[in-house]
Specification:
The protein contains 4 helices and 7 strands, in the order E-H-H-E-E-E-H-E-H-E-E. By secondary structure, the chain is α+β, with helices and mostly antiparallel strands.
């Protein structure tokens, strides 16, 4: 597996096409083309490739004092292989290196996404508020936050 860091401006069309395809195929609430087009210089996309095929990505927005995880995805057939942990770890430390300091991560996760919730709790993030009607179908999101702890 090859891990690479891409600034939104440095993405080639093939990488972004593959990211969007994974998002459309596997996310319960995939982003529209407009949402992808609204990414800016504060956004960092980290990609995980197996040879030429993109198999996962994480997308963060760098804010004043936090790293906001907007999306993270590993192709379902690879989810039990610890790639999410490695991708999050590598993404986080790349952000820390760029920012010059450790920051809290925060994110929203669908309340019923137990696999993701267990993952976030395993890396030391804490559950915060419950947000009603967060997703387009009216489902609830849980906010998680904290400095991740990777082993």
């Amino acid at each position: 597996m090859k891990f690479s860091i891409k600034n939104i401006d440095s993405l080639d069309d093939d990488d972004l096409t593959q990211v969007k395809a994974l998002d459309q195929k596997f996310f319960p609430f995939p982003w529209s083309h407009k949402q992808w087009d609204e990414l800016n210089d504060n956004d960092r996309l980290f990609i995980l490739k197996d040879d030429m095929d993109l198999v996962g990505f994480s997308l963060f927005r760098v804010e004043v004092d936090v790293f906001h995880l907007l999306k993270v995805l590993i192709a379902p057939e690879l989810q039990s292989k610890n790639y999410a942990h490695q991708l999050m770890k590598d993404s986080y430390y790349a952000l820390v290196k760029e920012a010059g300091n450790e920051r809290n991560v925060f994110l929203e996760v669908q309340e019923g996404n137990l696999k993701a919730i267990r993952f976030y709790e395993r890396i030391g993030l804490e559950k915060g508020e419950r947000i009603k009607n967060y997703y387009s179908d009216g489902s609830v999101a849980l906010r998680y936050f904290g400095k991740p702890k990777f082993t």
